[in-house]
């Protein structure tokens, strides 16, 4: 028994040394991709070791040894898959790049026009174009949608007017009142001869019933499921989700933002209360880029390379609102949206206002926020008082003290849930989209934001941000000096799960 005990201690030391060096030497994207697997595997190993330590039953020992062998093989398989997927120029990325080159040739007019931009706006737009290949567009018209009912009504109205196609992509679609209303209008348009394609995430929409999906399929709505749970495990991509929210109608209008499709987004969930979110409806040149993003995702899921000019009609919007799309994903070069947020914070001269449901930060974003606040920039962050998952609230809170100490102002919204993903910088630039300020959005999931370079739009979003502040309580740095041992334990646990929250 003593000999077995020392074997187990030795095994733990070897595993610790391996992962210590693995984390130090491996690129960050691979670390956070494999982190949840490591925790699960470590817990499994620990449980089995305890059983081995205290059991003399030969059958139990045989089962435990078999489980250990299986876990070891699964660990090696998962590590290989995640490493392979994390390489920016992998097989899929090469195919996607070739496909995107074909899509670039379809656009019939020059999207690059002379736009008067400030120095900061030019630097951000250049960063995005160099990172993603997506240029800034000028002729656009923007409408802000921050109320769930209005958002759904706008979608239904635009769907009802569709003549050629409807492309839809969401992380979550619920089989509830709103979900069925959404399904019915898609079926109606498909019956009218409109081409309807629907993408949703296999894990985010895992509760969607077969009846719901079959009814869509039977009525000529094409469905693309982004990595089902089993498929994700086999590909080593369980931790990489399609978190984008995109709607394109006839290639002329697009919706981008934070809303999904479900009752809670219209304040119909009593446990959540009022839902605060943000979407934009855009007409104009930038719709071409939303279309290319959707079609690239459709290509990833189905293998169908759609190259047809019908999806890129000429837009005749005369209004000037400079907008640029930005995407990011686990297997891209630069963690593009992370760099965007870092640059928006670092370039601010007067104020940075952020609304996000999750505040799980890497070192660079922490330094950017601290440095901005310490040099006199008005940095305000609004989060929900009551998170949707309690342990994520602990993870959020684990970052509060280090930010408050640097004079970053943090507000907890007390009336419902904040789900908006907003960054406003100096009333010159506002970013609205699907990407939260957390590890998942910035390093793991596939995201899309609209970056608007327009003072009026920035001020409109700031007005909504101000309504969040009015229903929020500001945190005080001194309060963290009075935390109980239990509260400190919660923050420690929150910090432990931060790499995949």
From TrEMBL:
Keyword field contains Repeat? yes
Q: Does the keyword rRNA-binding apply?
A: no
Keywords, A to Z, come to:
Cell membrane, Membrane, Repeat, Transferase, Transmembrane, Transmembrane helix
One MF term from GO for this chain? Answer: cardiolipin synthase activity
User: Which Gene Ontology terms of cellular component type are present?
Assistant: plasma membrane
Q: Name one GO biological process term.
A: cardiolipin biosynthetic process
- InterPro entries the record matches: Cardiolipin_synthase, PLD-like_dom, PLipase_D/transphosphatidylase
Localization terms from the record: Cell membrane
Q: CDD domains given for it?
A: PLDc_CLS_1 (cd09110), PLDc_CLS_2 (cd09112)
Regions crossing the membrane: 6-23, 30-53, 59-83
Which Enzyme Commission number(s) are on file for it? 2.7.8.-
Identify the residues that the record assigns to the PLD phosphodiesterase domain, covering every copy: 238-265, 414-441
Q: Which SMART domains match?
A: PLDc (SM00155)
Descriptive protein name? Cardiolipin synthase
Organism, scientific name: Alkaliphilus pronyensis
């Amino acid at each position: 028994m003593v000999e077995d005990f020392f074997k187990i201690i030795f095994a733990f030391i070897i595993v610790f040394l391996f992962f210590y060096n693995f984390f130090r030497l491996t690129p960050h994207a691979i670390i956070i991709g494999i982190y949840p697997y490591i925790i699960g595997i470590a817990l499994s190993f620990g449980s089995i070791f305890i059983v081995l330590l205290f059991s003399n039953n030969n059958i139990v020992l045989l089962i435990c040894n078999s489980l250990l062998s299986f876990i070891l093989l699964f660990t090696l398989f998962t590590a290989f898959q995640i490493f392979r997927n994390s390489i920016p120029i992998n097989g899929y990325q090469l195919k996607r790049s070739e496909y995107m080159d074909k899509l670039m040739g379809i656009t019939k007019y020059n999207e690059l026009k002379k736009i008067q931009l400030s120095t900061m706006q030019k630097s951000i737009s250049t960063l995005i174009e160099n990172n993603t290949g997506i240029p800034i567009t000028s002729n656009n018209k923007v409408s802000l949608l921050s109320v769930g009912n209005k958002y759904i009504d706008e979608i239904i109205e635009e769907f009802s007017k569709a003549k050629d196609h409807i492309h839809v992509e969401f992380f979550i679609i619920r089989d509830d009142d709103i979900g069925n209303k959404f399904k019915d209008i898609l079926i109606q348009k498909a019956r009218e001869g409109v081409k309807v394609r629907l993408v949703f995430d296999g894990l985010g929409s895992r509760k969607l019933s077969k009846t719901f999906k079959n009814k869509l399929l039977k009525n000529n709505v094409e469905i693309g499921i982004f990595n089902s749970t089993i498929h994700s495990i086999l590909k080593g991509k369980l931790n990489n989700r399609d978190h984008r929210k995109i709607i394109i109608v006839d290639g002329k209008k697009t919706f981008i933002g934070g809303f999904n499709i479900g009752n809670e987004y219209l304040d119909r969930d009593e446990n959540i209360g009022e839902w605060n979110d943000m979407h934009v409806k855009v007409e104009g040149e930038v719709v071409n880029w939303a279309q290319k993003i959707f079609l690239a995702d459709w290509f990833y899921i189905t293998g169908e390379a759609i190259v047809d000019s019908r999806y890129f009609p000429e837009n005749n919007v005369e209004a000037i609102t400079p907008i640029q799309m930005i995407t990011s994903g686990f297997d891209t070069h630069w963690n593009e949206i992370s760099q965007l947020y870092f640059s928006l914070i670092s370039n601010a001269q007067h104020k940075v206002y952020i609304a996000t449901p999750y505040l799980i930060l890497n070192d660079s974003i922490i330094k950017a926020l601290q440095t901005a606040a310490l040099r006199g920039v008005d940095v305000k962050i609004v989060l929900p008082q009551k998170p949707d998952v309690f342990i994520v609230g602990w993870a959020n809170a684990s970052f509060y003290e280090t930010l408050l100490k640097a004079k970053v102002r943090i507000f907890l919204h007390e009336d419902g849930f904040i789900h908006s993903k907003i960054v406003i910088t100096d009333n010159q630039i506002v970013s609205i989209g699907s990407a939260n300020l957390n590890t998942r959005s910035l390093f793991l999931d596939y995201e899309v934001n609209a970056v608007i370079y327009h003072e009026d739009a920035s001020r409109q979003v700031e007005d909504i941000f101000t309504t969040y502040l009015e229903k929020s309580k500001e945190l005080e740095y001194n309060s963290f000096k009075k935390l109980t041992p239990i509260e400190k334990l919660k923050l420690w646990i929150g910090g432990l799960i931060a790499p995949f929250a």
